[in-house]
Write a structure and sequence with these properties.
Low-confidence stretches: none
Number of domains: 1
Distance between the termini: 31 Å
Bound molecules: zinc ion
Helix content: 25-40%
CATH superfamily: Aldolase class I
Oligomer: single chain
Length: about 280
Amino acid sequence: MNTPCIICVAITGSVPGKSNNPAVPITIEEQVESTHEAFEAGASIVHAHVRDDNGKPTSEPERFARLVEGVRQHCPGMIIQLSTGGRSGAGQERGGMLPLRPDMASLAVGSNNFPTRVYENPPELVDWLAAEMIHYNIKPEVEVFDLSHMHKAREMWLNGQIRGRPYVQFVMGVKNAMPADRDVFDYYVRSVQRLFGLDAPWCAAGIGAHQIELNEWAVACGGHARTGLEDNVRLDRQTLAPSNAALVERVVELCERYERTVATWQEARKILGLSAPV
Ligand SMILES: [Zn+2]
């Protein structure tokens, strides 16, 4: 198991706020500082959403632009992945920040249920987001909330809607979507190998208490790991995570335990086929 492990830190998300954990970075300044700490701790990808002045999710491109500028300045080389997720806008608003040309963007390729709503990703929007990502030379991270999403990613790869081998992330433990089920996880890994190639990189994310569980499964199985306050605000049932960096450190410890090195940003860019930083 000598592939370095890429750690992605999902710093903010659309849901958690200061009332859930005061360490959740909300303003751009807080986000840049939190990203910097996580970068120093070992994260090589930042997955980011932005919030408005009231702390509500938004897709305002100007806010994303300030965040991208801050991260590029304070975390040189770090891979910037912007969310095109559905909680922060409707329709094509979700891709309004893609002209900023981040290294990566998240791409949902199908619909499913979320805790209190439908996560709606209609085919024409998926096609449009994928086309915009090709236009701006952005590598998608395909969010796999369901097995069908992996097959859709393969179809999009074969028909040229996704350039280069798709990088998929299994998301498990979202209420009303796929639970953190070990058999499903193992089947996901086998499916990646069958659909995208034996050496295709993949990532896994778990929600809430499942975060550390998915981190361990991924590190142990040669995958890459996502952590961060977006998915989980606690270290354990009683303890709030003091920072995004503290959650990154948990993954670094897992890497030590499973004898994986932590990918530098240079290694992460190589594994993902990304060009040199801007
Ligand atoms: Zn997100």
